[in-house]
Amino acid sequence: MNATQNLYALGLNEAAHLIATIGHQRTVILEGHIGTGKTSVEKILAELKPSHRVVRFDCTNKDLGDLFLPNMADMNGEPFVRFIPNEELGVHLNEPIILNFDEIGKANPSVIKGVRRVMLERMVGTQKLHPDSIVFATTNLGAEGVGDLLPAHTRNAVCVVKTRKTDNMEAISYGLKNNFDPILLSWYKENEALFQTFDEVPNPVDNPYIYHPKDKSREAFFTPRSGEAASDILKMRDELGDDVTQAALIGTIGLQGALDLMAYVQLFDELPTLESIEKEPIRAKVPTSASAIYLVVFKVLAGLKPKLLDSFMDYMLRLPKSQQATFVLSATQADYPHIDMCTQNAKFTQWTIDNHYLFQADQMGAK
Q1: Taking a C-beta distance cutoff of 8 angstroms, is the pair 320, 293 a contact?
Q2: Which DSSP helix (H) or strand (E) runs through 127?
Q3: Burial of 309 (0-12, 13-18, 19+ CB in 10 A)
Q4: Smaller CB count within 10 Å for the chain: N or C?
C-alpha cells in the first residue's frame, strides 16, 4: 500500500459497517494482509444483521463445475437443461443472507467469471437472491505474493477497499473478549512490532516476527490469526510441558516469536497468585519489572470476579500509574466481558474520578 492507501485503510469494524450499509447493492471486496481477520468480518456482520444467515463460499477449492450442476427439466413436453446452484451460494434458503466469496483472489479464473453475475446482479443463474441479501468477498494483497490477483474488469465492477492490521491494543481488546491467554495479551502490550506490516519494514531483518515476502525462509510468522492459535497452545502448556509447547509455538508463530513468548511464560510462573491478591492485596508480591506487572494486570483482567476486583483496586494502588491506567482502559472497553462489574464498583469509579488527568491527553488528541 502507498501512504494514501494506508491512511484510508479500514479497520474490521469499519469494513463491516461499509458492507452492512451498501452490501445489498454493491459488492465490497476486502483486500488485506495475511491472517488479519478479513473472514471474521462475517461475525461482525452477523451481529449487525441478526436477521441474516451467514453463508461462506470458499473460492480456493472450487472449479467452474462446482458452481452449478446440470439437471434435465421439461416444459410443455420440451426438454431443456436447468442448472442447480451449489448450496454454498445460499440461494435455496429463500431468506436474507450474508454471502462471502472467501479468498476470491485465489480462485480459479473460471470461478471468478462464474460468480461475477452474483456479485453484480445478485443473480445465481436464473434465481435471484433475497433482495435484502448482502454480498462481499475477501482477498490478500497482491504484493504479498501468495497468488491473489483480480482481473481489471472484475475490480472495476466492485468496490475494493484495503483493510489494515489491528494494532496491539485492539488485539488485546479482542483477546479479552474471547478469553485469550493472559500471557499472550501481556506480550501484545509489550511488542507493538508484532502488528507491523511488511510494507512498513523494507528490510525483513528489522522485524523477525511477521510475514515478509522478501524472506522466503520465514515459513511460520505472527499474525492475529496465528496469535489466536498460540493462545490455545499456551492454555494447554501444563499438559504439554515446556518443550512440546515451545515446539508447537515455533511451528505456529515462528522461531523468534516463540522464543520471546516462552520467556514470558517463565516470568508468568513467578507472579503473585490471584488468590494472594484477593486475600492480602496490601501484602501480595508486586513484581519489579514492567513486563511482569503487565502480566499481573492481564492475569487479573482474564480471571476477574467481584471479590477479586475489590481487592485488586487496593493492590493496584501499589503499581505504577501506567499499569494502573492500562487496567482501567482495558476494563472499560465496550466489549470487555466484565465492564459492568468494573463500572459499578465503588473503588473503580473513585479511581477514575481521582485519576481523570491521566486520560486528558488522549481526549485532547481525539478532538
Answers
A1: yes
A2: strand 127-128
A3: buried
A4: C
Q: Which residues pair with 82 in a beta bridge?
A: 71
User: What is the reported pTM?
Assistant: 0.79
Q: In order of start, what are the domains of the chain with their CATH numbers? A: 3-162 (3.40.50.300), 168-366 (no CATH)
Contact (Cβ atoms closer than 8 angstroms) between residue 211 and residue 195? no
Burial code of 8-43, b = ≥16 C-beta within 10 A, e = fewer? ebbebeebbebbbeebbebbbbbbbbbbbbbbbbbe
Pairing label, strands 68-75, 78-85: antiparallel
How far, rounded to the nearest angstrom, does the alpha carbon of residue 211 sit from its chain's CA centroid? Answer: 16
DSSP 147: S
User: How many Å separate Cα 353 from the centre of its chain?
Assistant: 33
Pairing of strands 28-32, 159-162: parallel
DSSP state of 95: S
Backbone angles phi, psi at 119, to 5 degrees: -70, -35
Q: Tell me if 290 sits within 8 A of 264, measured CB to CB.
A: no
Cα–Cα distance, 178 to 283 (Å, whole number): 31
Per-residue pLDDT tens, the chain, 367 aa: give them: 566 667 788 999 999 999 999 999 999 999 999 899 899 999 999 999 999 999 999 998 888 888 876 666 666 777 766 666 777 888 888 899 999 999 998 888 888 888 898 999 998 888 899 999 999 999 988 766 665 567 888 888 899 999 998 899 999 999 999 999 999 999 999 899 999 989 889 999 999 999 999 998 999 999 999 999 999 999 999 999 999 999 999 999 999 999 999 988 888 877 899 999 999 999 999 998 888 999 999 999 999 999 999 999 999 999 999 999 999 999 999 889 999 999 999 999 999 999 886 665 444 344 3
